[in-house]
Amino acid sequence: MIYRYISRQVFIGFLIAIAVLLPLFSFFDLLDQLEDVGRGTYRVSDAFLYTTMLLPRRFIQIAPFVALIGTVTALGKLAIHSELIAMRVAGLSPWRISIAPLSVGILLLLGVAILEQFVAPQLQQKAITYRAIALEQSAELGGNLGIWTRNENNILRIGRIIHNTKAADIEILQLDQEDFLAAHVLAQFAEIVDGETWELSNVIVRTFKDNQILAVRHNTLSWSSFVSPDDIATLTKPPESLSPLELFRHVEFLRSTGQDADSFALALWRKIGSALMTIAMLLLSIPFVFGSIRSGLSNKLVLASLIGIAVYLLDQIIANTGLILQLNPALVALVPGFTMIILAHVWLNRTQ
Predict the structure, then answer these.
(1) How many CA atoms lie within 13 A of 71 on its CB side?
(2) Is 157 helix (H, G, I), strand (E, B) or coil?
(3) DSSP 10-66
(4) What does the pLDDT look like over 218-262, one tens digit per residue?
(5) Of 260, 274, 289, 304, which has the fewest Cβ atoms less than 10 A away?
(6) SS3 at position 236
(7) Nearest Cα to 188, choosing from 208, 173, 204, 175?
(8) Parallel, antiparallel, or unpaired: how do β-strands 147-150 and 154-163 relate?
(9) Burial of 51 by CB count in 10 Å (0-12 exposed, 13-18 middle, 19+ buried)?
(10) Residue 144: pLDDT band with limits 50, 70, 90
(11) Could you tell me the maximum CA-CA distance found in the chain, to the nearest angstrom?
(12) In angstroms, rounded to a whole number, what is the distance separating the alpha carbons of residues 251 and 246?
């Protein structure tokens, strides 16, 4: 009965935290989008729709904050009414009391996992596409450098993705068995007929052989692509907008073709690291509340919020630094969460 009571209070605390944090973060998203109102066909209603479609992604991002603030709110309320003291007198240790918040936290992580795989990526990608169309933008990466990918014998550059089945400003560098440039194909447009065939238009093919360059023009030219439409779509999306399964498949594709996969691998591991950080925030909040509550619950919440923001910023700094220094993505993503869990474990043991 006691565990059920604590779990119910923690669940209510989570709901309060969500009710406060999710609208707050969404409001910041909306302010950011309102700056683009008036460009192309982008209207206020589009900004609201875009922000709404990002709600599942924002919920996933604030999950560690929800765990921290929600648990501090729930246990702080119990401490103010001396219920925690009564539980300690009844023989419940902080570790045993922590079982209830952890069980609710597991439910939170389960909800996050479902959203992460089946809801948030799809809505976020639709939001990105919807916004790009309204702003009359086309998808591209690397500034004006376009999208680059390769396999063993071809290097492909796509200047712009106009829509799912049409690309513009195409370059194909074909290599021979000794990795020397054998041919260069430049096309103005490419219609993606199916997963393997592209119909190139306004094409110039330059072949390099015996110290000579032979240029031939074609109105149209069929090309057997090594990149599937799904792979192209993945290349134009931010790594954090992909589901764990999409990230795993794309990392395998990049590595199998000899390309740099660090940013996508880091995004994949950070999804796991976020779950660890949520558990860490839960454990951290318990000894946090078992300290003196004389300063008031509001002060505890402010301090907990500052700690959460500091941990979040530190995690971002570590991730970006690791990417720049080309450190192991798994190590960069998981170390902050494991470190916080160890610190929370030590702190919780000291409250016994």
Answers:
(1) 30
(2) strand
(3) HHHHHHHHHHHHHHHHHHHHHHHHHTTTTSTT--HHHHHHHHHHTHHHHHHHTHHHH
(4) 999 999 988 877 777 677 788 889 999 999 998 998 888 778 889
(5) 260
(6) coil
(7) 204
(8) antiparallel
(9) buried
(10) low
(11) 90
(12) 9
Nearest CA among 193, 258, 202 for reference residue 225: 193
Q: Order of strands across the sheet with 212-224? A: 147-150, 154-163, 166-175, 181-192, 197-209, 212-224
pLDDT in tens, 52-91: 999 999 999 999 999 999 999 998 888 888 888 888 888 8
| Among 138, 160, 142, 127, residue whose Cα is nearest residue 32 | 127
244, amino acid identity:
P
User: What does the pLDDT look like over 311-342, one tens digit per residue?
Assistant: 889 999 999 999 899 999 999 999 999 999 99
Name residue 179's amino acid: D
Distances (CA, A) of 64 to 204, 215, 238, 337: 53, 58, 22, 10
Residue holding tokens 């609201």?
Answer: 48
**222 φ, ψ to 5°?**
-85, 140
pTM, rounded to two decimals: 0.82
User: What is the residue extent of each domain of the chain?
Assistant: 2-135+261-350, 147-235
Total number of residues shown for the chain: 352
